[in-house]
Structures are given as C-alpha cells and as structure tokens.
Predict the structure of N-acetyl-gamma-glutamyl-phosphate reductase.
Amino acid sequence: MKVSLVGVTGYSGMVLYHLLSQHPQVEKILLFGHSATATNENHRSTSGLPSYLNISDPLLPYDCQTIEERSDVVFFATPAGVTSQVAQPLINDNFPVIDLSGDYRLKDPLQYQKWYHKEPVAKETLRKASYNLADLSKPTSNYVANPGCYATATLLGLAPLVINHLIEPDSIIVDAKSGLSGAGKKLTTNSHYAYINENMLPYKVNQHQHIPEICQQLHQWNDQVNSIQFTTTLVPMTRGILASIYAKAIKPTSTDQLQEVYQTFYADHPWARVYLDGFPSVKNVSHSNYCDLGISYNEATNTIFVGSVIDNLVKGAAGQAIQNMNHLFNFDETMGFNLIPDIP
Amino acid sequence: MKVSLVGVTGYSGMVLYHLLSQHPQVEKILLFGHSATATNENHRSTSGLPSYLNISDPLLPYDCQTIEERSDVVFFATPAGVTSQVAQPLINDNFPVIDLSGDYRLKDPLQYQKWYHKEPVAKETLRKASYNLADLSKPTSNYVANPGCYATATLLGLAPLVINHLIEPDSIIVDAKSGLSGAGKKLTTNSHYAYINENMLPYKVNQHQHIPEICQQLHQWNDQVNSIQFTTTLVPMTRGILASIYAKAIKPTSTDQLQEVYQTFYADHPWARVYLDGFPSVKNVSHSNYCDLGISYNEATNTIFVGSVIDNLVKGAAGQAIQNMNHLFNFDETMGFNLIPDIP
Amino acid sequence: MKVSLVGVTGYSGMVLYHLLSQHPQVEKILLFGHSATATNENHRSTSGLPSYLNISDPLLPYDCQTIEERSDVVFFATPAGVTSQVAQPLINDNFPVIDLSGDYRLKDPLQYQKWYHKEPVAKETLRKASYNLADLSKPTSNYVANPGCYATATLLGLAPLVINHLIEPDSIIVDAKSGLSGAGKKLTTNSHYAYINENMLPYKVNQHQHIPEICQQLHQWNDQVNSIQFTTTLVPMTRGILASIYAKAIKPTSTDQLQEVYQTFYADHPWARVYLDGFPSVKNVSHSNYCDLGISYNEATNTIFVGSVIDNLVKGAAGQAIQNMNHLFNFDETMGFNLIPDIP
Amino acid sequence: MKVSLVGVTGYSGMVLYHLLSQHPQVEKILLFGHSATATNENHRSTSGLPSYLNISDPLLPYDCQTIEERSDVVFFATPAGVTSQVAQPLINDNFPVIDLSGDYRLKDPLQYQKWYHKEPVAKETLRKASYNLADLSKPTSNYVANPGCYATATLLGLAPLVINHLIEPDSIIVDAKSGLSGAGKKLTTNSHYAYINENMLPYKVNQHQHIPEICQQLHQWNDQVNSIQFTTTLVPMTRGILASIYAKAIKPTSTDQLQEVYQTFYADHPWARVYLDGFPSVKNVSHSNYCDLGISYNEATNTIFVGSVIDNLVKGAAGQAIQNMNHLFNFDETMGFNLIPDIP
C-alpha cells in the first residue's frame, strides 16, 4: 500500500510521517508540499526540510493526478483553508482522503465561515465528507474529516453521558488545557519560551474553532444538547490535552455506577482506558494513541466530573488519522501502533 | 518593629523571609524552628539551613515567651497540625499572630477533622481567630488565620458575583490549576521532575482541604451558597495558580456589564487588577502580590467565566500575610511590596 | 524468540519494554522482579506496577532456571549491585545476557569498588563479560555489559579523534549535561520539580561512575590516554544528554577536515549522524536511537569542539541494549527501531 | 534623584525598571523609547506597553536634551547599534550614562565590527567609555559600558586565577549555558516553546559577541592571555547562566587551596559567594544580584574547574547596572537590592 502525505513540516505531519513509517501495510510514503494556492506561497519551497526527519527526496509539488496515480490514500496535514481549495478533484473521483484540517468537519458552511473566518466549501460537497471520531464509528464515505484535538478529548469524555442521557443537556462545561504544540509552529508572543515557561493563561475563551464540531456531534448524539461552555487554557508543556468536563446529573448517581457505565461503553474499544481508581495524567498517554478517562460524582453539587487525557498530536491528530485509515481499509484499528507507551 | 518567624525552610517561609527583609517597618527578624511537638521531631535541628538563605544565626528553639518578649508579632509558616498544638499561650496573651497554616481557618472543629484528618482546636479558641482575606477586610482579632492559596484566588474571583447576588448559588464550578510549590517541599512520586515535567493531572478532586474555607466564606457573603464543585489540577510549573471559575447568571448580562461590576467592586483595592481586554496570564502576577482578573459572559449558555490568577506563594501565602500584618498595625496595605512586577 | 526482562519499573526498563514490544523477532516478553537479594527487599513485590505499562500479569519472581528454560536472552535493567550478585549461574551456562547496569563494565574490580562503593565481581568473571559500544563493535561473549549513558555520548564523540590519534592524549575535557531521567526514579532534593525547574547545577564533579569506563575504553583505543576531565551538569529536562567535548589538536586542522574524518569514520554506522552545518540539538535524537555529532575547530586556541547528543534512555540504555541483542543474534542492527524520529 | 531609562520593553529594561523602582535614592523614573534612528522604526510607538508593567504614562520620545534637563543619569537597555548612534551628545556633555548594550565595550572599533556586524563608534569616543565589571572596580568615567551576561559570569569565575597567575594562559575553556531570556524577546525558531522545551543545543560556537570583551579584560589582567575557547549552550529555562570554566594549573594545587584563594579574593565583595562544599545551582542566585562560585581541582588531569552562576538579567544586566550607578554616585554597592533571594 502506498500513501501520500501533504504537509509534513507541521507537528501533525511530522508525527503522521513517524507513525506511517512503522505501519506494516504501508510500503511507501510520498511527500507533497501544498503550494497549490496563492495564500500558501511560503510553503511552495520543497527544500528547507529539517534534517532530523531523515527525508532525502525533495517534496513533490502538490498535484491531485500524481496522488491518485501513485498512491492508495492521501493524508492532508495542512492548515485550515487548504483542502477547501484543492481537494475537490479527489472528492469527485471518490479517492480516499483523510483530512486532518478543519475544512470539512462542519456540515454548515456558515458555521465554518463564522469560526474559521475563511471561505467555506459548498454545502453539497461537505455532505460527501464523513466527520469520524475513530474510536466510536467507521467512516461512511471515502473523504474522512478527522476530528480536532480538543474535540476528540471532549467527545470521548462526554459520549457515555450524552448518549446514555445521564446529564442535563444544558449543563456541560469543559475546561480544556493544552500544551503548545496544539497551536502549531507559528511564532507568536504566546509561543516564546520565556513567555510560556512558568506561565499559563486562558485563551480563545468561548471562541475556539473546535466548539462547533463538538456541538454538532453532541447534538447528533442527543438533540437536546445545543451549546456548551468551553474554555481553552495554555499550559507550559509541548504535548498533551486534559479536558476537565463538568455536567449536572439528571438523577443522583455514584462514582461507582458511572465508572461502570464508562467501562461498559468502552468495553470493546481498545484505545479508551477507564480508570477505577483516581484520574489519569497526561503522561500516561504521551506519545500514544490512548484516551484515558477518570470519572467522579459529587453528591454535594450533583455534578459529574470527567478527566479525559490524550496526546494532542497522536490521538488528537495523526494517530486518529491512522485509525481512520485502518477503518477505511478494514485493517484492525490498532494496526501500526505500539501498544506499550513510551515513558517517561 | 521586630518580627518572629516560625518555619523558614518551607516555600512560604522562604518567601515570607524575603518579603519581611524588605519591609520598611521591620528592623529585625527572629527565626524559630517549630520542634515543640513530638510529631515534628524532624524539624528540631537548627542546622541544615540552605546557604542561599543568607542566614548566619542558627534557628532559635520554639518558645512562646521568647517570641512575646523579643518581638511584636509572630508569623507561623508551618504545616497543618503545628499551631493547633503550640499557639494557645499566644492567644491567651492576645499576642499578634499571623498563621499561614490551616489550623484556625475553619470555625467548625468537625470540618477541620474531616478535611485535615488531624485533631482540631477547641471551638471557643477558634472563635478568637479571624479568617481574613486581606484584600477585602481587616482582621477583627489579633490572631489572623491567613487564607489558603486556592481559597484566595477563588474567593477574589467570586466575591463580586456572590456579594452582589449575580449568580445561581448552586451553580459554582471552580477548575483550579496550580504549580508544584503549592504542594510543598515533600518528596513524592508526584513531585519528581521526570514525572511532572510534560505532564498535568487532576488530584484531590472534591477533596482539597481549601474547599471548606471557601464554602465558609461564600456562605458568610451569601447564605444561599452551601457547596461548590472544586477540582485541583497540577501543572508543570513552580509558582502560580489559575482559578477558572464558572457560574450561571441569575439574569442575562454581558461581558461589559460584568467588567464594570468588577471594576467598581475593586476600585479601591490596590492589589486586584481587572482586565477590560482578554484574560490575565499567571506570569503577569508572578513574584508579586497582585490578583489579576478577567471576566467573560457567554450568552449561549448563560454562563459567567472568571479567570483569577495569583502567585500562590505571595498573594496566596506570604504576601497576603504581610498585608494582614499591615492591617493589624495600621500600615498602608501596600507597604513593603515592590509594585513593579519582576518579569520575565 | 522469547526474551526475559528483569526490572521493568525503572526508566530504562520501561523504555526497553516499549522497544522490545515492537521488535519483529520478539514474540514474548517475560517480566521478572529482582528480589533475589536481601538488599533489594523493596523490589520483591510483584504488584504496584504502573497501569500505563499495560502489564496484566504479575511480575515473575527472579529465578535463573526459569529464565533459561523459558527464554532465549535476558536483559537486566537493574540498579548497580544486582547482577553482581545474581547473574553468576547465567554466566556459568553461557546464557545470553544483556546487562544495562554498571556491574560488569570495568575490568578491574578495585575500580568498581572505588567508583560504585559496592562489592565487585571476581576478576575472572569480569573477563567473561564483553563491554560493547554497540555502534562500533559486536559483543565478543554472551554476557554483554551495555555502556552507560554518559559513556556512550562521550565515546561516540571522541572515537574518531582518539582512534585516529588527532588530539593530545592528556587534553580531553568533557562537559556533559543530562536531563533528570538519567538519575533514575529515586526521590531526592535534587529531583523535586520545584528545585530543578528553572535550575541547573554541576554535580558529581570528577566523581561520576561513568568516568572509569570511558577511560578504560579510550585507553584501549589509544594507550596514551589515561585520564579525562569530566563534569556532569543537571539541566531541567526529562530525557537527553549533550556531551560537549574539548581537546587540543595534535597539529593545526580545520572544521572541514574534521567533519570529513567523522563522516568517513561513521560512514557505515546507521545510528551516528554527522552534521556538516552547525550542531545537533537534543530534540533531534529524542525518543530515537541516534547519536548526532557536530564538530568545530578553533584556530585561535587550536582546540577541537565536538557536540554529541543522545537520548539517554534509548541510545544511552535500552536502545543500545536492543542493538547489542541484534548483534548477538546476527539481526540487522537497526531491526526493531523506527528510523523516523518522534518529534516534537 | 531622577533617572531616565531608554528601552523598558526588553527583558533587561523590565528588570531594570523593577529594580530602580525599589532603589531608595531614586524618586522618579522617566521612560523613553529609542526611536531616534531609522533602523529602529518599530520601536517608535509609545503605546503597546504590557499592562503588567504598571506604566500609566506613554513613553517619552528619545531626546538627549530632555534626558539631561530632567534627570541625573540615563540607562540604555537597548539592542546593539542604538547607543553608538544616539549617545554622542551625552558623552560630549559628560552626562552620566550606563549603557547595557555592547556598543562601547570594546576598545578596538574593528573588533566591534567583526563580532557585532555593525558600524562602530570612533576610537577616541570609545576611549571615553569605562568598561566596568562592577564587582571588581569602579567606573573611571561618566560613560559606563556595562558588561555582558556571559562575560560577567566568566570573568568573575576567572579573575582570581588569572590575576594571581595560577593557570596556563592558553588553557582556558569556558562551557557556558544560558536560559532563553539571554537571547531576548525576538521570535525565532530557536525561541519557540515546543522547540526549546525538552531540548538543549550549542549555538554560536566560538562566535558569541561576548568573547572579545572577555579576552580584552583577561588580557588587561594578564597580558599573556590572548584567547579562550568559548561555547554557548541554550538550555530550557528562562533565567540563569552557568559558566563551567576549565584551565590547567601552572603548578599542582588542591581544592582547599583554591577555595582559600577565592575566599581571600572575594572577601570584601558582597555579591560574590564562594562555596566551600560542592557547587552552586542557578536557583541559588535566581532573581538576585549574586554570583556564586564553586571550585574543584583534579589531580589526575591537573585541571581546575570553576562553576560560576548568575541571573543573567540581574547580575548579568540590570543588577550590575544599578551597582555601577551606585559606584558612580558613591552609594553603597548593595543599595537598592534585597539581599535575601526570592526562592523557589
């Protein structure tokens, strides 16, 4: 099997390249730049690849025909606004695409415009894409919109509660924390080491672009859920997300009962681990494809707390993309991953 | 003015010693060990002081009489369970005490026992202590119970909402994050560098010992508030707390209105800074006595979000203790502090 | 092929378990505790394994016969002082052993005693062990003494200079820096997060136990080298070593000439990468088995500077151990490794 | 006493502002931008000051006359290339200037050009500036060239050895490590959090612009010293320098003897602390004006090792600048500093 990868220089692309290189079904990886659009002028160059990536060949210039002729699937690890402009021919040909960007995640073009401040794809095209949380379903089309990192941690944490109708639908509060790699390689005041080291700060409060895809999915699971309170906080680390989730229980319950609900829900899901004692730490999933979950019920406030941790670049991006590829080609969903974490 | 300091080797004690040494009214600092009780055997030694503290004299053995005779006020920067056993003579003599530990914070001895798992002080003695959030009031007695670090960030963030009855009393959720110094110098698996670096984790969920003092104070401000949802998360940094506070508004409001409420509330309070644009980062208050506050209202969920940041060792411990000393002796509450932060 | 692993709970053991689990020739990993000796009482327990290791079976009690009967090779990821007491039967039977500890590295028992402050193995037994820097040679016996982390970075950095007689033999100075995982999981004042974060410090100056194995190997390469100046510095990171190496050139040379020497020397060595432009950073080898090398010559001081970086837990311990196993069983030395680094 | 400060937005400027605000002799601080030159266009704006600096007034536009009329001394915390263009009128008027930049440090204009790649000041003007390491001497003119951070740590570490002729003059090797604040606020690939966290790397090997001022000073102390080997390494921390210094002893000595030499040398110098046991860590001097020194002699290699640590923004920049101001106005050299460190 041959795969194409568009965009290897960003963090997700680098991790994807690492994971693809150890997948037993992948015999060749073709690397493409994504210079097709005027707005991505600066990515046109095929040189300047970091030496540590061990890439000897120059990047190929982006070209749909080459991709289709020379490979069996293509991954896009590109920023927002790229696939919306260049992927149409692949959709037309029903060629397998796994898109790590946000361009095809939202079914409503106006929502995309509102949250991404970019030109959306046409509604009928969006319908052909399958937003697929790889741990809970298989893609329903050949164009997979891979979920965002915050969305993955949040949705896996909320699924058992929302699908089983255990919580008040308007009571969901998510306090999500992320390391710096989630914001990409862009140089900003916020990403300077001397600023972020020994620092943490809320950012994009109620404005993060992963909010609408979370609401869209929750609403699909339970149409009474229409909105959530969602705060993102930057913490001084490179990789990792902790989504701290709060919701009011519909009726009094207990920590034990809830743990059982989660265990039952995730019984056949190899990448979700439910803790019966305490809460997971981000390091427990670092560099792995796991989502680890801890649950607690507080009688005094009738509130359920869920701690959901992932590595934002693996489960929250490249790892889930491989999982979606495994689904698409009917491989086992754990294929290509090392199940033993790489710690410390 | 001469001050006694019991417990200089812990983090709060070290910062207190630093701050006292630059206070214009303090001419001498007497340093005491706190070996009076059998349970603190290991603190008996007066040697082993870190050289960087620039302390040439050995610690004095703890003795109430010496303290009263040779100084005008005593600070206790001791772990839970010390002042409950050794401070009674000072209370009897109405000698000025500022106690950074939790021993005299809770008015109900059973609550102390429940949350601290230690023998409480008698109820009538507890009544003689004044739990005093230094930014909002002055001590009403000579024995000041200095608030805990999480409690300070949380209460300063909630005060305008609770005192002005702007939120549903049973809707308060606090997601508080702290660096490692909050947990003290104790060596545990959780405090090992290789464990905490590139890691974060929820801990003591609904079980942190600062919860009852927060509820006690909130209830005093508004007797409809009886409980809160409170989660503590360890993040990889040394100093700093971010309390992320959520509550449902009693009636629809706006970010602008709320910012005005906070500005009015904190107008004459030199150590609270209300942001009109965005949210504070922990670094903005690092090594300072400030509490910085950002507020946001979300129409979609009718939820108010407040970000409250402090340096846990200054505003959350030693700095507030000095502020309480300033109150006790009628000094200006900013006396002894450098108002310009020490950044980066 | 079945392998036994004694000591999975330390950092090297954890990484070894991760790497063995992805080795194509390894079908089973048996995990043993190492409680055979009274001094290791605390390791006797077979419970208490971290859940993230995904180990369902309890650890087997240490037993040479079981190891020999049920596996083809055994790895010891144990602290100093264990294999010296328990490995003799395996040596007697010429069973393949890869020992990550320092017990069999030094040929002179008195040196072991001097630097490790422990009882040494008998001289004739030591002779049966093969100290083998896996990038430069193959083991000459079935008992492999795997080199230490500092020794690996230093020796790979010095080999081309010492073997080619390019430097003054008494002029070698190594300023080696390491992250915290190099010091193991032991809780000490030095390992507390709040102490090491935003800190660095020289430690064990001229006293690090890897000094004698470096000198032993250098002397074997060039008998004029008898001693080196070696300083170890702790820096605030988890994984990684940078050995900064200085030596006087025997005759004036140039950066270009030296880079060519290194390229030639390492031409057929897949795990050493020589930089022609600038110096490697630790991140370039993080979580990988590479040793990256940069070289520079300073005319003004006639001094050669070499920067040598490795991941101390992979190339400096578990990775090299796998490499040595590959040598022992005539597998390709890159077998079982992902050649694409896992960055950031 | 009134002081002017040109350049408050860089790290040194921020720390200088903090320190000046607590100096008992400073009653007013005037803040100036440094927009006088075309090459600093981007600094022209007087808005955009970080709110945490507590600066209510806008920056004054740079103007020598205003500075001279309204203040008694001016500090320049500006990048290289500014004072060389704008300070001439102040020199002509013999107005007290403390220049934290490198523009007036080197006596030879060609050296400045070679190392800074900028247009130098005329030789006769350079003669009017006094390069003054504040711990060892007093300025000899009203224009003080404040030493660089690496130079300060290195020179204080080498002074007793070089001045007392204890080492081979051509044997000096300095392996200096610095946190990120030393490189300033500029956004570069090297300063991105996700790159530097869990990383370290040599940079500017033999090319750092502090090398010539170190050699100039060493040569002045001992004219046999003409060059040094000097490597700079970036480590993942914000503040702090460790200069690890190596040199061959002229005749065999001992650690004890050397410690005595250092103690005698620094006996009357309040800001240098000599360790008799072990080596200093950077945290011991963090946020303080101290330089802490540890010394060790290795018989086997006849090599002296000195570990010298400073806070690069205090002792290595703003603190030393205040010390130089204290010298210039005959204040005690510890005036304005808190002698108790602010730890952790």
User: Anything to note?
Assistant: Chain C has two domains: 2-147+315-328, 150-312. The interface with chain A takes residues 11, 14-15, 17-18, 21-22, 51-54, 181, 197-198, 238-239, 273, 275, 283-285, 287, 292, 313, 338-344 of chain C (CB under 8 Å). Chain C is about 30% helix and 20% strand.
